[in-house]
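Take a sample.
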Amino acid sequence: MMAAANAAPFPTPTSPSLVFSGADAALLAARQFLARLSTPTNLLLAVSGGSDSTALLAAFCKANAAEARHRLAVCTVDHALRQGSAEEAETVAALCRRWSIPHETVRWAHDGVGSALQAQARMARYQLLAGCAARHGASLILTGHTADDQAETIAMRSARAGGAEESLGLSGMAETVLFDRRIWIARPFLTLSRLDLRAFLSTQDLGWIDDPSNDNPAYERVRIRQAGIALDGHLQRAEAAGRRRRASSQRIAAMLPEQLRLHSPALAELTLKDAGLDDPDMQRLLGLLAAILGGRPHGPGRESLAALIQALRGERSRFAASRCLFDRRGSRLFLHRERRALPDEMTLQPGAAVDWDNRFRLVNDSADPITIRSGAPPGTLDTGPDALVPPSVHRAAHATLPCPVHDPASGTMLPSLRMTPRLQPFDTFLPCFDTILALRLDALFDREPFFLCPVHDVLS
């Protein structure tokens, strides 16, 4: 373990957005972050060997050394996408052995991965980190994302949003995010510059590994980086957008009890009010419901959402977006999954679980295999048709539910299938901006609430 740092004063941890600068920035930020953990916590540090993550490792080792209140472990994800990646992982492992920090290297098996390699690599990285965190008993993963990463993210999202300053996407990367409803990820260096992190490493006589892909202009982020961006301006935009997003999520959460009714896990009804379709929060809610009921990672894009809003201005209209069907009947808007492209018949073995249509988590609690078809008949998995719901809407919605059967030939029902709704996109990535809204949706869909972030003031 590295020697304890001098007890230099540092600001009281009341503002998560406080920016440190200079060669001591990494150590001060690490101390501040640890002070925001109200109980001793097992932390898993994601360290690739680059300057940012190496500074993360060195700063948190030093900040924790005086009291050793928290337990640290390190994970290196070897994506195996270029030569030398295994040797780089071993370099990190050697540094951890030097400081007596538990270390694990996890390798991504990506045979057969074709398109969207970067996106799949990102998802695989978080899956592997989450698995490693579970093995080490960690309740929080720390990554070394910096203000430079944040500014690049804001610049890319701003370009995609056509420069619209009101875009909530300009909130950028959240300080904390819940991944897969099982592990919180924190970014304690999100307001520190990469230059300051490297200055800190120099004071510690530590080097780092340069990933050649960070200079490859084939990637959008690299092109943004090479063009040069002003950190302060983009961080201010992110902070302002983050406040807007948090306020939007709170307003939507407040409107749900009055305006949204869930007739079943597959059928929602939204009450439309005068000028409601022009409300940005209502439009955001429509996109979110499309993702949830359609089982998509995200709601409709800008153009598709604009077309949806225009179509719904008619008193009686139907429109499909993100596999979700919107059926307006006066002031009542019914939403449910389209019947196209539903999953094929499948067999779920005893004790097995599956994410069905990205809308339901199915678990076989019986001692026998269960055959599952698409299209549950009315009354099978709910309390029966609601007298206030048009029969055609009820039939269409419940034809998109999973239907368990004993014998595919006889259609005899088997009641031992446990079904939990999935709520996209929050079940994959839930940023701290949206926790109030996600908690309200959990209650609406009758789900167990997710566990709160160990960083006690993350919502302040």
Remarks:
- Residues 1-18, 378-384 have pLDDT under 50 and may be disordered.
- The first helix runs from residue 25 to 35.
